[in-house]
Amino acid sequence: MTHQLKVLTSLLDLQLRLNGLLKRPEKESFLQRLGEFDQEMVEHIDADADRVLLTLIDRSSTELHQYSSTHAMLVMVLCQMSRTLIAAGEDQVHQSMRLAALTMNISIVGLQDELSQQLAQLSADQKERIASHSAQSEELLRSSLGCTEPLWLESVRRHHDAIPGALSERTPAERIARLIQRADLFAARISPRKTRPAMSAAAAAQVAYLGEDGKPDEAGAALIKAIGIYPPGCWVGLGNGELAIVLRRGAKAHCPVVAALLGPDGMPLPIARVRDTEIERYGIRASLPPGKIKFRPHLATLLSKV
């Protein structure tokens, strides 16, 4: 098995594990198993964050199956990559942030998966469960699953707080919650629903970047600085007419390394061609919503080019 296929297999296995952990949590083993999951994910991020982003953004943009676990993993990764906003070099704080991102929706993971496939409008009961899920998730973690970490619990409770403005006067939990909220917005917007298409990555980045007051948001800006305007896994149109998927962040936020997969005529190229978007003829002309791309690349092959 190639290294790239091992990476992909490991990430998909982690997704399955998280899906089971969140949907069928057992008090006796939950904290230990979640901690082990967290450490394995950190190892993947430290080894190659671009490969992780490529896998998770591609799946978030195209797959509704097990939406809740994919979403939780992506939000956790986005927060980890933006972690210096919260505290420099404080591993325990960063772990609480990651665990909060993974479990922020633990009280409604089944509902999340249902809603990703639902065509009908939300029922009154569904609206109530969504409105109360932050507090319910904290209560489940604290009362039923043995979590006693205050920073983790408070961050979960506050993760839907919509409070724009500077972070300097906020507590660590409030800063974590704000970063999770921005990452949550980005991840949700690039994922399709039965009732709406997914946004392009650039459009989702703008949603995360601008706060509720319409001004640049400090946490959103840190997130976009970390992952780029065109993060790995998103689709773009190039100056020469080719359509490409982003492989790796570049030295400049708007100039990633991409793999051209479709020609100007919309037909698949014989082989993926790696393009440097700093070169004018390969410069990015558009950020494309995934729904406009009918071609599904082979992820393991793409990972070999990252």
Structure description:
The protein is of the alpha+beta class. It has two domains: 3-227, Hypothetical protein af1432 (Orthogonal Bundle); 235-303, no CATH class. Helix content is 53%, strand content 10%. The chain is built from eleven helices and five strands; from the N terminus they run H-H-H-H-H-H-H-H-H-H-E-E-E-E-E-H. The protein has helices at 3-23, 30-62, 67-81, 91-103, 109-117, 124-144, 150-158, 172-189, 201-209, 218-227, 299-303, and strands at residues 235-238, 243-248, 257-262, 268-276, 284-288. Strands 4-3-2-1-5 form a five-stranded antiparallel β-sheet. A hairpin with a 4-residue loop joins strand 1 (235-238) and strand 2. The longest helix has 33 residues, at 30-62. The chain starts with a helix and ends with a helix. The mean pLDDT is 93.
Name a few traits of the molecule:
single chain, 306 residues, alpha+beta, Hypothetical protein af1432, 5-stranded antiparallel beta sheet, 11 helices, 10% strand
